[in-house]
């Protein structure tokens, strides 16, 4: 009787194992099912592990990904990149400066931006628009709804200007640092933030995909910033690009014409320009020139007559841009920071714009 029972039990066990095997370990309510499932996932991880960079781990939620889904993780080695660290610092300092009045202090982009609160306040401050969202949202659903509203407004603003949307509600809420940085860089560039982003910052990311039930990984390079001009969307080559690259002799003719033009007016104040690249970089001559062209005196308390810091120079150039717009000119394509940083093409564009509008002024 005992032998028959043992034989019956063994047969039943084999039948159970075969049954569980066919189901692929999906019956989580059975202990045996869980063991098979764990073994299956361990096998998949073992197969994929050699493909991952050192220090990168497959997260438990990755094994539960839906078919054809993917997740992106920052390669740990990229976090130690000095230019990447500099980019993080610049962005954090910028956000804290913008949101100082709201008494919001950001210390970690992943932890402080994922729920949409900081991004909401930042977008409202930059755009001057009030978004119709709940102020405080604790639940995941509420946070994602807020993110949805914020990102829809951001995308609606940026997409017409050629920005590639590299972020989503899910990527931001899952604390995808790369997606968060892409979003912040786009906002900083679009709203001409008074900051200097480090150029050519790239990172390595691990892309985890699920194909036919198996996790696949790949290491991909992501460019977070390029050059300032490229990020500003000024991809098209203009006359100054051509002059600088192919006709330096003609460029000198243009510079001479511009110097003659500005000195015609600045000489009235006993001022003279000999170097376009440097003498307009602090914004003082641009402000004085606008006053002369429009025939008014600019109160000295409106600008820094002898600017010393980068911020003071940016203030001056930005103020001169406001005066240009007050005079009926379009807002210059150049950023104030570019002029301050001695970017020749940016300075030439600003001056050429004045020349075409005021060349017949006495």
Automatic annotation (TrEMBL):
The keyword Hydrolase does not apply. It comes from the Eukaryota. GO terms for biological process: actin cytoskeleton organization; establishment or maintenance of cell polarity regulating cell shape; lamellipodium assembly; substrate adhesion-dependent cell spreading. Residues 85-192, 252-359 form the Calponin-homology (CH) domain. It is found in: Cytoplasm, Cytoskeleton; Cytoplasm, Myofibril, Sarcomere, Z line. Pfam families: CH. The keyword Cytoplasm applies. One of its GO terms (molecular function) is actin binding. One of its GO terms (cellular component) is focal adhesion. Keywords: Actin-binding, Cell adhesion, Cytoplasm, Cytoskeleton, Repeat. Belongs to the parvin family. PANTHER family: BETA-PARVIN (PTHR12114:SF7), PARVIN (PTHR12114). This is Beta-parvin isoform X1.
